[in-house]
Every structure is written in structure tokens, then in C-alpha cells.
Write a structure and sequence with these properties.
single chain, about 160 residues, alpha+beta, five-stranded antiparallel sheet, 5 strands, about 25% strand
């Protein structure tokens, strides 16, 4: 029978493999935590960008509705206060109702009556359209975009 004598590990070398494994695990944990943080901030930034684009699209869509009302002279559903037409639309939902949006649009300017719509003299009217869209995110932050348009006039209007 071939018996090998068992060699005893010196006291100075005991646990060195455990120490190396623990150091490797620590380095791996730091790398994974950094990667997870980078992924989280990338997701947050892209989500904020998507909400910003949606907000602008909402403001543009309602501005188009204001232009339609001006072209047709039909202000059904609009309120008129001090020469300024206004309308608020709510109930826009995105992403399974977790993100909500609303938009307020005005035709005219309360501080400058020359930018109000004058239905009796459409050929010289230069109304100002202001569309303010707001989107409330799931984390409580809001995104707001304001579009302002001052219209010109034409002799064929």
C-alpha cells in the first residue's frame, strides 16, 4: 500500500484562499453595484426624455385644435374671459394609467389686447396661441412644455 504522509499547511498560509475569494467577491460586488446604478440612471433619463416628447406632442395637438377653432370661427367648448378664449383638457393617460397629462390652451393675451382674437375683423387680427401641457410622472415629478404662437393675417382670410 502506498501511503503518503499528510503534510501539514504552515500556520502562515492558512486562510489565504479564503482571503483571496473574499477580496474577489468584494471587487465583483462593487462592479455590479456600479453597473446597476448606471442602468438605473439611464432608465430614469430615457423615461424623462420620453415624457418630455409626449408633453410637447400633447401641446402641439391642442395648438392644432386652437388653429382649427380660429379657422372655422367655432369656439364651442371654449370659455371667453376678458377677450381671451381658453380651454382645458384633462384625462390623458400613458403607460397603463400611471402617467397622466393635461393641457391648457388660450387664444389671446390678457396683458396685451392687440393679441386677442377679434371675430369682427379677422383680416387684421394677430392672435397669440399659448398651449401649456403638463405630464405627471409616476415618481411625482412633472414635465411642462409651453408653446406660444403668434399668428399673422392675410387679406384672403
Amino acid at each position: 500500500m502506498n501511503v503518503h504522509p499528510q503534510r501539514r499547511t504552515p500556520a502562515s498560509e492558512r486562510g489565504s484562499a479564503l482571503l483571496v475569494a473574499m477580496c474577489f467577491s468584494l471587487v465583483l460586488a462593487v462592479v455590479l453595484a456600479s453597473y446597476q446604478t448606471a442602468c438605473y440612471y439611464t432608465l430614469k433619463t430615457s423615461s424623462r426624455n420620453a415624457q418630455s416628447v409626449r408633453c410637447r406632442q400633447l401641446a402641439e395637438a391642442v395648438r392644432e385644435e386652437a388653429l382649427w377653432a380660429l379657422n372655422k370661427g367655432n369656439f364651442t367648448g371654449w370659455s371667453l374671459t376678458s377677450g381671451v378664449y381658453g380651454k382645458s383638457l384633462t384625462g390623458f393617460t400613458y403607460e397603463s394609467s400611471n402617467v397622466t397629462g393635461q393641457v391648457d390652451v388660450t387664444i389671446g393675451d390678457a396683458s396685451d389686447s392687440s393679441k386677442n382674437y377679434d371675430s369682427t375683423n379677422r383680416n387684421t387680427t394677430r392672435p397669440k396661441i399659448t398651449s401649456v401641457a403638463t405630464i405627471q410622472n409616476t415618481d411625482g415629478t412633472t414635465v411642462r412644455r409651453t408653446l406660444t404662437t403668434t399668428l399673422g393675417y392675410s387679406s384672403t382670410a
